[in-house]
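ok new one. same drill as before - structure tokens go in, u give me an amino acid for every spot. 214 of them this time. try not to just spam alanines like last time pls lmao
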């Protein structure tokens, strides 16, 4: 029988409240913005989108889920909620920001132990994956210089039937990932749109095989 998702989502809401209180935290130096900071509220996934993430995982039932970046662990908690409800699968999540990742670890651990959090970039650490990617969430620096090579790695590490997704928001800069992927992948569908202007993009099963010509 499917477990009740309510307690898990209540726990995520509780962790989100706690996380909000940490306030400004240093941005990873890779952004090249000096001593810039961000609050968790500026980068975190909103609950309505998170629910869609969790439901997507329940539908797809992936074994190997990849996410970059982790940030404060908000999106990660929703991927984990889906994996917990499925009773299977593992999240491999990557972020080079040590400070944020330490906060993320507390959040992720509150939801499930089905995760491996790597402090470092996805590109430098992709070798830790135990097998082909079934589902990837690309949510790091959303400019084409970064996204294109990252997407190439994701595609080359994906198994047949893999799904990939990204987010967009009101900011043109953050539309690059989703825009690039949606243009390059026929059959891409916009699955869910939230009131806050984000959208979740994903692709139908079986598509990765075609992309990779396997
Ligand atoms: C938009 S935030 C992620 C938000 C998070 N997915 C959420 O919804 O709660 C972007 C994160 O990507 C991380 N990042 C940037 N480049 C990265 C890379 N190459 N590999 C992994 N993480 C990266 C940043 O440190 C930052 O924490």
């Amino acid at each position: 029988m499917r477990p009740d998702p309510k307690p898990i989502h209540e726990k995520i809401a509780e962790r989100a409240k706690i996380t909000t209180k940490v306030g400004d935290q240093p941005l990873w130096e890779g952004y090249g913005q000096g001593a810039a900071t961000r609050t968790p509220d500026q980068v975190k996934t909103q609950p309505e989108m998170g629910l869609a993430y969790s439901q997507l995982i329940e539908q797809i039932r992936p074994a190997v889920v990849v996410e970059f970046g982790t940030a404060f662990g908000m999106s990660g908690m929703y991927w984990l909620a889906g994996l917990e409800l499925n009773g299977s699968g593992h999240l491999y999540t990557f972020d080079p920001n040590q400070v944020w990742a330490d906060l993320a670890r507390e959040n992720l651990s509150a939801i499930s132990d089905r995760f491996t959090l790597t402090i470092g970039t996805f590109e430098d650490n992709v070798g830790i994956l135990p097998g082909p990617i079934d589902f990837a969430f690309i949510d790091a620096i959303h400019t084409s210089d970064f996204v294109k090579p990252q997407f190439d790695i994701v595609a080359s590490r994906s198994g047949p039937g893999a799904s990939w997704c990204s987010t967009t928001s009101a900011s043109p800069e953050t539309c690059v990932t989703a825009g690039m992927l949606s243009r390059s992948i026929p059959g891409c569908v916009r699955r869910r749109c939230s009131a806050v202007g984000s959208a979740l993009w994903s692709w139908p099963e079986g598509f990765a095989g075609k992309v990779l010509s396997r």
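The pocket of S-adenosylmethionine is lined by residues 28, 30, 43-45, 68-69, 71-72, 74-75, 94-97, 100, 121-123, 139-141 (CB under 6 Å). and btw The mean pLDDT is 81.
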